[in-house]
Amino acid sequence: MLNKQTLTIATGLFLWLTAVHIGLAKKPAAGGGANHMQRGIELAQQKQFDAAAAEFTKAIEGNPKDPRGYANR
Q1: What is the pLDDT of residues 34-71, one digit of tens each?
Q2: 29 CA to centre of own chain
Q3: Domain count of the chain?
Q4: How far is CA 9 from the centre of its chain?
């Protein structure tokens, strides 16, 4: 059976590792790529297709689960 000191150390280590894991988690990009999506649409309307494709690629990087970026690119 664990004594009180060992249990305290194990609990502290667990909490510390959890905090480190949460702190190191990648934060989602602000806006999720929405700004890049809008800019890409504007560039495509101006027939600047290469620049629009680059913006749609950035939108995909910001939110890879949004199918509109793939469709527009």
Answers
A1: 899 999 999 999 999 999 999 999 999 988 888 888 99
A2: 5
A3: 1
A4: 34
Q: What six digits make up the tokens of 29?
A: 């990009």
Contact criterion met (CB below 8 Å) for 52 and 44: yes
In eight-state DSSP terms, residue 23 is H
> Chain centroid to CA 41: how far?
22
Cα(first)–Cα(last) distance of the chain, in Å?
Answer: 61
Residue with tokens 């999506």: 37
Q: What is the pTM of this model?
A: 0.56
Structural domain for 68, as ranges? 32-72
d(CA 58, CA 14): 37
